Amino acid sequence: MVQLKMLTAGIAGVVFSVVGAAGAATLDEVKSRGYLQCGVNTGLPGFSAPDDQGNWRGLDVDVCRAVAAAVFGDSEAVRYTPTNAKERFTALQSGAVDVLSRNTTWTLSRDSDLNFEFVGVNYYDGQGFMVPKDLGVSSALELDGAAVCVQSGTTTEKNLGDYFRANGMELRSVVYETSEQAVQAYIEGRCDAFTTDASGLAAERSALAEPDAHIILPEIISKEPLGPLVRQGDNEWADIVRWSLNAMIAAEEYGVSSQNVDEVKAGTDNPEVRRLLGVEDKMGEMLGLSNDWAYNIIKQVGNYGESFERNVGLKTPLALARGLNEQWTKGGILYAPPVR
Amino acid sequence: MAEAMQHYKPGEHPDLPPPRESVGPIAWVRQNLLSSPLNAALTIGSLYLLYLVLPPFLDWAIFSANWQEGTSRADCVKDGACWTMVRARFGQFIYGFYPQDERWRVNVAFLLFFVPVAALLIERVPGKRYFAIFLFAIYPVIAYILFYGGLGLQEVPTARWGGLMLTLILGAVGIVVSLPIGIVLALGRRSALPVISLICTGFIEFVRAVPLITVLFMASVMLPLFLPVGVTFDKLLRAMVGIALFGAAYMAEVVRGGLQAIPRGQYEGAMALGLNYWKMTGLIILPQALRIVIPGIVNTFIGLFKDTTLVLIIGLFELLGIVQAAARDANWIGLSREGFVFAALVFFIFCFGMSRYSQYLERRLHTGHKR
Question: Taking a C-beta distance cutoff of 8 angstroms, is the pair A75, A299 a contact?
Answer without folding.
Answer: no
